[in-house]
Every structure is written in structure tokens, then in C-alpha cells.
Amino acid sequence: MLRTVNAVRYVTPLREGGSVPALVEADDDGLYVVKLRGAAQGAKALIAELVAGELARAAGLAVPEIVLIHLDPELGRAEPHREISDLLDASAGLNLALDYLPGSVTFDPVAGPLPDPALASRVVLFDSFVTNVDRTPKNPNLLTWHHAIWLIDHGASLYFHHGWGPDAPLAESDDPFAFVRKHVLLPFATALSEAAAHLQAAWSEALVRRVAGAIPDAFLTDDMGFPSPDAHRAAYGAWLSARLAALPSILAEAERAQAEL
Fold first, then answer.
1. Which of 74, 99, 124 is the last residue of a domain?
2. I need a labelling partner for 159 at 20 to 30 A (CA). Which of 37, 152, 192, 250 fits?
């Protein structure tokens, strides 16, 4: 499902957010924003980025291409900041990266362009599905690029997996996600019922399990008590399947929040 590339040149840190992602050039001549496994959020942020990003893509939402990227710590040896150098050392090996969108700007609902109701509604329900708490007016994590709205930074999604384990593998899968009230696009999301039907059609049981199956072993080193990486991946797939069953309650919560506006 995901391509794998090798970093060949470390360009610069992108000093935004707690993860301090790095901009690197890869052996396919592309520039990528690398989410580092050794950052404070750890590998779970990379798992959330992968799962949420690929689900968004399957739903027809614009997400930069996600790739797996091998990082040689030698690339950061010239970095004068010890904090960044240590972070690169701690992230040696397999990481996650997103295609860099040159010239993109942060989405601003005041400046526009504004999303149409169908797009806004799909993004709102998508974020509710993956429990993304990081799409607020203060920090929208949306980019405007080539007159389209692109979704980025999903590391705060799937917050259930912090402290998760095999004793309660479906924990919080039925959460209606009341935090949707903070969503930056909620005021424009007036086609939520149609969006739910669209997502239901786009996300089959096979699709969500295939997305979960793409999580690499290197991101599952903190096994949380699961007996193997395969069992850990299967648990993610089961949770996402249970989340699909909860889509009606997720829709109802979003509709209530929209009506309150």
C-alpha cells in the first residue's frame, strides 16, 4: 500500500508542533516532511498518521502521499542544534513521511477559499471517526494548495491507543466524539447525512483491515501486551471495524453540534 524511500539529504527541521518534523530529500528526488519515530509522541503518532491519512485518501479527501522512509542518522550530523541531532539519532531506521507541498499556506476560514458543504461535512465526520482533536480554529492542520484544501498532521488521532491493550481491544470505539464542537469546519458542514453515506460506502471492512495491516513492525515495538505484531495489527483492524458500526452515533453527535451553532 505504501511506497518505501530512503532519505539522502537532510534539509532542515520544521519547527512547528511538538514533533519537530524534518524536511528531507529522498532517493526518488522528492522532498518529504518526515514524522520522526524518536519524537516525544513516539511511534503511535506515526501509526495514527498512517491510518488516518490512508482512510482520508480512501474517502476521496486530499492528503499528501504518505511513504515509509529509512533515515540514516548520519544525515543530521551537521545539524548544530543538539536537540535535533539527538532526535535524528533516536529516529534512525524506518519513519513516516508526507509529500512536501511547496507554496502551500495554512487554511484560514476568514481568507478562504471556503469548502463546500459536502467537503466540510466529509472532513468533519472523518475527523470524528478517527477521533482527531487537532482540527480547531486555533490549529486547523489544513493547507490550501492549488486551490484545494489538503488534510495534514493526524498524529493526534486514535487517542484510544495510548494506554490501550488486549484486555479491552475495543476501548472507546463507540465514542460519539463530543469534541466535534471544536472543529474548524463545523460551521460549513451542512451535509452531514450525505457525508456519512459517502464514508460508509468508501470504508468497507476489508479496507479498514487493509489499512491496519499496512502498519509496519517497526512502529509496533511498544506491543502494549499484544502477543505479536500481527496480533497488534489485527487489533487495530478490529477497532476500526467496530468504529464503522458506531458511525450512526458519530453522525448524530455531529448533527447535534452543527444544530447548536
1. 99
2. 192
Phi-psi region of 49 (alpha: psi -120 to 50; beta: other; left: phi over 0): alpha
Asked if residue 109 and residue 49 are part of one domain, the reply reads no
**176 and 114 within one domain:** yes
- 4-13 and 105-106 strand pairing: unpaired
Which backbone phi and psi does 205 adopt, to 5 degrees? -55, -40
pLDDT in tens, 189-223: 999 999 999 999 999 999 999 999 999 999 998 77
- Asked if residues 98 and 152 have their Cβ atoms less than 8 Å apart, the reply is yes
Predicted TM-score of the model (pTM): 0.95
What 3 state SS string does the chain have?
CCCEEEEEEEEEECCCCCCCCEEEEECCCCEEEEECCCCCCCHHHHHHHHHHHHHHHHCCCCCCCEEEEEECHHHHCCCCCHHHHHHHHHCCEEEEEEECCCCCEECCCCCCCCCCHHHHHHHHHHHHHCCCCCCCCCCCCEEEECCEEEECCCCCCCHHHCCCCCCCCCCCCCCCCHHHHHCCCHHHCCCHHHHHHHHHHHCCHHHHHHHHHCCCHHHCCCCCCCCCHHHHHHHHHHHHHHHHHCHHHHHHHHHHHHHHC
Provide the pLDDT for residue 221: 84
Q: Are 118 and 199 in contact (CB under 8 A)?
A: no
Which domain does 153 fall in, by range? 105-260
